[in-house]
Amino acid sequence: MLKVGLTGGIGAGKSEVSRLLAGYGAVLVDADRIAREVVEPGTPGLAAVVAAFGEDVLTAEGALDRPRLGSIVFADPAKLQTLNAIVHPLVGARSAELEAAAGPDAIVVHDVPLLAENGLAPLYDLVVVVDAAPQTQLARLTALRGMTEDEARARMAAQATREQRLAVANLVIDNDGPLEALEPQVRKVWAELTARAVARAAEAGGAAPGA
């Protein structure tokens, strides 16, 4: 198994890279999706969030009001840390379950937005960073996600800097340009991941991925 950490700042285009890698054959473990699942109604995760932040973070139907919670935690680093302390262990446990189910010859890509922030690079065989300039991120967040500039800057400020992400990268995908320029880069990265997985399997005396 080749364990890959995939990360990138908000608005960098990491989700599109994940989609492409999954299409090529990667087993995708999406930390954002898991983070939503572990705080669904009826879960211990949601109960812990409500205990920390109050009933105001729930919708009338009893689900987590994500915009409301986001407005609280992204304006206060201490509250963001509190939320992360609740959610991250739950996400980690579920991610480990999914990885274990992938099989010994899989290329498992962990899509982890806060990989650099939480010092998670050592958990993976290599780290792929989707990179975009801060001004590109800002433009995408305001144009494509409907955030105000202040909201977008607050989300970006809550994450690692561009330099901090690049410092943990083994492979970098430049997504500062148009979408059509992204796919050839991702395909090249997939070829590199496949080659590394084949080499790892050969060293272990196992089968190559897809064999």
Describe this structure in words.
The chain is of the alpha/beta class and 211 residues long. It has helices at residues 14-24, 31-37, 44-53, 66-73, 77-100, 134-144, 149-157, 162-167, 182-204, and strands at 2-8, 27-30, 107-111, 126-131, 171-174. The protein has a 5-stranded parallel β-sheet with strand order 2-3-1-4-5, with helices on both faces. The longest helix has 24 residues, at 77-100. The two termini are 13 Å apart.
What spatial order of strands do you see in the largest sheet?
Answer: 2-3-1-4-5
Using only C-alpha atoms, the radius of gyration works out to: 18 Å
Biggest beta-sheet profile: 5 strands, parallel
Overall pLDDT score: 92
**Series of H and E elements:** EHEHHHHEEHHHEH
State the share of residues found in helices, binned by percent: 40-55%
Describe the global form.
globular
Q: Ranges with pLDDT <50 over ≥5 residues?
A: none
- Structural class of the helix and strand makeup? alpha/beta
Number of helices: 9
CA(first)-CA(last) distance: 13 Å
Strand content: 5-15%
User: How many β-strands, per DSSP?
Assistant: 5
